[in-house]
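WARN  no MSA supplied for this record, continuing single-sequence
INFO  ligand: pyridoxal-5'-phosphate
INFO  echoing inputs
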Amino acid sequence: MSPAAPSTLNTFDHRPTCAEVDLGALCHNLNAIKTFVAPSKVMAVVKANGYGHGLERTALTLQGAGVDSLGVAYIEEAIALRRSGITIPILVFGGLLQEQLELYLKHDVDVTASSVSKLEQIEATAQRLNKRARVHLKIDTGLERIGVHYYSADSLYEAALRARHSDVVGVYSHFADVNLNDLAIAKMQLERFLSSLRYFEDRAHAPFLRHIASSSGLMALKESHLDMVRPGLTLYGVYPGPGYESRLQVKSVLSLKSQVVYFKVVKKGAGVSYGHKWHAPEDTRVVTIPIGYGDGYSRALSNKASVIIRGKRSPIVGVVCMDQLMVNIGPNGEAYNDDEVILIGTSGDQRVSVEELANLVDTTPHEILVLLNQRIPRVYLTAAGAVPNRDN
Ligand SMILES: *Cc1c(COP(=O)(O)O)cnc(C)c1O
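INFO  complex generated
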């Protein structure tokens, strides 16, 4: 028997737990960012399964809404996008291994050239395959990740000027620290980037895009917009930290929902969940929800996060299990089996945000989103309402 072909009909179709993705909100956010940064271009970052929103659907929606290009971390993500019908430029941010180069050229994916030797590898492969490579040079202005240091960038620029099989379509850098209260590091990085660029600007044969700002940078520092910005988080309607809301209004795209599967009264003093890390202070009503850290809802949220049931916030009690968690709805709380549970999202005047969950466990909002894994079906809302097919 041959292995089963991947199917759009997915095994988790009927799970009560899902991530609802509002594609209208996604388009709204793209337009808000476009207006904010115009005339700069926008590269939408869709790495890590579109920040948990689903790689293909997110990318196709953004392409349909007129985004200029897409950014991903790995070549595999770019290939998946090409196979799903993405025709606009895709840049892979990540470090390059020589053996992957043929894939870049075969699938027409933009390469990050982060050193002279990497650029030489790109040149050699492009020549051998008789193709032209599209290249973005990567300048390190202070993150100490991939990229040639800004103070030795001239060697990379010279190699780029010598290149015969590559088109340098961009030069970019990435902020290490954007802090609304102290932009000194970001400003220093921007200055390093711009001054290193002068050498290349004076000599380049063709126009190219200069870019440095992701979500926080583009909101915090207008001078950083340059020719293009690279938002991820903000596109999904989530803010990188406090204080950004006043700069640009975006709508959250993802809601995480489930349903009550069990109701019980827990007697005063009884311990709840593994290790009895919570004890009922009084007789109280506790419901069980079918989602856990096996879905990417972090165990670190145990005894910290709240959910919304019937318009009321109630706390998670005890540790989050792999597949289930318990919520204390109080001695007189009302909830029935099948009731909707909102783990991320809004109901009435109550809201649980990605930012709130990130704060509770001292991580970035990015991590809360990308942890939500393939076991949670994504349900897409368009202007016409819920899209019946669900993707993982
Ligand atoms: C992830 C990433 C971005 C997007 O960052 P956000 O904070 O989500 O806006 C932009 N550029 C690079 C190089 C990245 O790796």
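The longest helix spans residues 184-203.
INFO  checksum written, moving to next record
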